[in-house]
Hints:
Number of domains: 2
Oligomer: single chain
Amino acid sequence: MASQQDLKRRIRSVRNTRKITKAMELVAGARLRRAEARIKAMRPYAERMRELMIGTARAAGPSSARLPLLQAREDASTTGLLAVTGDRGLAGPFNSQILRRAFALEREFRGAGQDVRWLVVGKKGRSTLTFRRYELAGDWVGFTDRPAYSDAAAVAHRVVELFVERGIDRLVVVYNRYYSPLTQKVETIDLLPIPRSALEEGEEQDKTPLEIALEGDIIYEPEPEEILERLLPAYVETTVYRALLESAASELGARMTAMRNASKNANELIDRLTLDMNRARQAEITQEILEVVAGADALE
């Protein structure tokens, strides 16, 4: 059995660790509320962007199919995988589940005869891929906990450039979608080419005032096709930005939960070590009493 001093040192060490995990839990919780507010503020903008694209695509008609970002390639041979991870750890399975899904997709695509090119957001994803000696077509770090629209624009510009120049024929994004501090689920979306469903979604649903207005007698200047050509890159940026915001909130939620569990485990460990220390102290006291009794018996 360990001595009292060893147990005291271990208890002191665990208490210090508990202070850190508790502080990290509180910080993550405070930042999570701001991240949730950013997601809620983003959703109306994304919805209006979708409505504007739907109306403009309808006005453009069949000519919109000629736009590069809408063209699905029959001879597609290369798929791009964009994994959205975090810059830091201590967030439970947040990073590992993204990479696990991305590697599963890679095996699936290679099994179908596709080449795979990797793009990654976050230091954790980049370090894992470089350790495995993957060549990265793009990597971005330093903003995963507080992404700005300019960060999303940089990512979107790179993936659009790769797609237009036929560096990739398809782009799949893998990220954690935020539902609650306890629930984050891995999502995959086909970002490029932009699915036609993104321009047709909601046709059978009640139309919003903006969609009704866009279907009216409107004179477009310039032509609807040209407007749509400008809107499509903005749609890609918006989609990437939303994925970054969802990922940031998911990371904070996962970290808050992980730190709460770590603090709980620290409390349990402290209780167990305290019990062991009390037992060790009782054993020492008992041993001292036995030694005193034995000494007294020896003097008689």
